[in-house]
């Protein structure tokens, strides 16, 4: 009877102990004493992810030694949910391989991330847990650990940096109308036959045409006289002066016009530059030897002596080169007023065949509608096989986020340069292949490619690296990189425009500085410039403390 009684007491104790253990496991539902720490306190989009650094501290006596606890972080937003990885912990008497939480308490730290999805700006992060004791599943109430998600990174201009190829159209074309008279050996007198030479007649005809065309303006006139490099430097300097004087007196006869008061008179003396050009253009057998002498000696007297020493060569120079250098040139500096933008536009619609490649590129650059630009660039491709027009067609496609169309235009360019390589990088960027884009940007090595590498760093969430790469540059991406790297003053300095997006970024900077007045002023500007963007600010957690 005593043994039976003892057995009943033992059974009661076991039942009581089991009941106590079960009760303690149930008490894990009470999470008031658990400490949660989430970094950042407000979640933020970094690159393509929303990273979370979560620490949970369990107090002494909380964690049952035979319980398994499963914790799942869940991002909740706009009626949607995104579950993170499930973390499993066990008490110290559980025979399994999960992370152990002792009865005396402890801290666990987990790093994970969520994917970006539209609407996460107003998300909150909660932990959903269940405890399992033997075969019993004990649900634990969800705990909210973070509110909202900063998506300021989305203000980046992710379309890529590139520039249209410029035209070489000249608004004013500068040229010269020129004629010349030749002199006999050691003479400064102009023969009458020279006043009727073909060169003089060409100058006279050109001046007559200029006078009849209001687009032409004579900007200046000059006479330039020379002596051939023979006979000594001092002597030839005087002879050149005398030829300049005789040419001045003959100006009206040569040009058919009065001598202008501002006529510029220049006496060059020995014409070594002209000598070199004449030798290079000649068929003299030993001209390479002569050119070597010119390059070896800078002293005119030494040059002349060394050339004279080559007697046979000197004879050929006397016949073929020196006579062409005994001259005076009559020069009219002329400006031609090219077609204005309005005239180019008119010609492009009514007489487009008049336009050369530069004219087509210019009128395309000033066209307002992309369709019209494309039409004119296509014309330049068809008529002039223009690589610049092909590049600009690619740029138009990139403007419209049509990377495949841009790639086709770039592939057709016959002589690709660094700008083309950069544009190919933008194609890959818009296709979503940042690694391929970065390789092309590095190969291009241009300032625009460097800016694009900074953009990739920014989109990848490498804010410090992006800020370093974009240091000293201006624009939204440079400002945003500095802002997200914590350099608020540098961010402010990098913003240059007054557009709605720039004002929005200024408001974010003000918010991070705690400047309530600045937040209001800049958001008021946003509301005026872009009401839709302003509505976005009403959900932005950047401004949660200023509503």
Q: Give the helix tally.
A: 23
Give the distance, in angstroms, between the N- and C-terminal Cα atoms. Answer: 78 Å
Q: What is the CATH H-level superfamily of the largest domain? A: OmpA-like domain
What value does the average pLDDT take?
Answer: 90
Radius of gyration based on Cα positions: 42 Å
Class computed from helices, strands and strand pairing: alpha+beta
When the domains are counted, the total is 3
- Percent of residues in beta strands? 15-25%
Briefly, what CATH class of the largest domain? Alpha Beta
From the spread of the alpha carbons, the general shape counts as elongated
Total number of beta strands: 15
Poorly predicted runs are 1-22
Question: What name does the CATH topology of the largest domain carry?
Answer: 60s Ribosomal Protein L30, Chain: A
Helix content: 40-55%
Major β-sheet, in short?
6 strands, mixed
**CATH architecture designation of the largest domain:** 2-Layer Sandwich
């Amino acid at each position: 009877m005593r043994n039976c009684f003892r057995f009943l007491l033992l059974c009661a104790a076991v039942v009581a102990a089991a009941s106590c253990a079960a009760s303690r496991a149930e008490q894990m539902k009470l999470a008031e004493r658990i400490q949660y720490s989430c970094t950042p306190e407000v979640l933020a989009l970094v690159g393509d992810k929303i990273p979370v650094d979560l620490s949970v501290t369990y107090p002494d006596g909380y964690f049952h030694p035979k319980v398994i606890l499963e914790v799942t972080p869940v991002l909740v937003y706009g009626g949607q949910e995104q579950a993170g990885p499930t973390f499993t912990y066990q008490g110290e008497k559980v025979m399994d391989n999960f992370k152990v939480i002792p009865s005396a308490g402890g801290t666990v730290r987990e790093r994970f991330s969520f994917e970006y999805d539209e609407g996460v700006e107003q998300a909150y992060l909660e932990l959903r847990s269940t405890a399992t004791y033997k075969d019993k599943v004990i649900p634990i109430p969800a705990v909210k650990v973070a509110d909202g998600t900063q998506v300021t990174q989305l203000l980046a201009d992710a379309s890529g940096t590139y520039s249209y190829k410029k035209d070489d159209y000249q608004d004013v074309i500068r040229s010269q109308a020129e004629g010349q008279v030749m002199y006999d050996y050691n003479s400064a007198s102009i023969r009458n036959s020279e006043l009727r030479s073909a060169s003089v007649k060409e100058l006279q005809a050109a001046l007559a045409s200029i006078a009849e065309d209001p687009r032409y303006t004579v900007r200046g006139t000059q006479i330039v006289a020379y002596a051939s490099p023979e006979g000594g430097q001092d002597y030839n300097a005087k002879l050149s002066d005398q030829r300049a004087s005789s040419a001045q007196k003959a100006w009206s006869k040569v040009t058919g016009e009065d001598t202008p008061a501002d006529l510029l008179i220049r006496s060059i003396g020995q014409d070594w530059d002209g000598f070199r050009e004449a030798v290079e253009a000649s068929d003299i057998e030993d001209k390479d030897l002569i050119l070597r002498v010119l390059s070896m000696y800078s002293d005119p007297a030494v040059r002349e002596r060394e050339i004279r020493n080559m007697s046979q060569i000197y004879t050929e120079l006397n016949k073929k080169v020196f006579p062409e250098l005994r001259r005076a040139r009559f020069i009219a500096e002329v400006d031609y007023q090219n077609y204005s933008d309005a005239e180019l536009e008119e010609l492009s619609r009514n007489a487009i065949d008049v336009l050369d490649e530069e004219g087509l590129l210019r009128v395309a650059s000033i066209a307002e509608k992309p369709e019209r630009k494309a039409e004119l660039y296509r014309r330049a491709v068809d008529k002039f096989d223009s690589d610049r027009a092909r590049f600009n067609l690619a740029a138009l496609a990139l403007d419209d986020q049509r990377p495949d169309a841009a790639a086709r235009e770039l592939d057709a360019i016959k002589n690709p340069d660094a700008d083309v390589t950069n544009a190919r990088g933008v194609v890959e960027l818009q296709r979503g292949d940042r690694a391929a884009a970065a390789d092309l940007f590095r190969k291009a090595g241009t300032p625009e490619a460097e800016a694009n590498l900074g953009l990739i760093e920014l989109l990848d969430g490498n804010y410090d690296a992006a800020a370093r790469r974009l240091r000293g540059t201006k624009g939204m991406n440079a400002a945003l990189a500095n802002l997200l790297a914590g350099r608020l003053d540098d961010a402010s300095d990098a913003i240059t425009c007054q557009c709605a997006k720039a004002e929005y970024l200024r408001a974010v900077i003000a918010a991070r500085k705690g400047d309530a007045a600045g937040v209001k002023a800049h958001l008021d500007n946003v509301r005026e410039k872009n009401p839709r963007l302003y509505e976005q600010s009403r959900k932005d957690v950047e401004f949660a403390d200023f509503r």
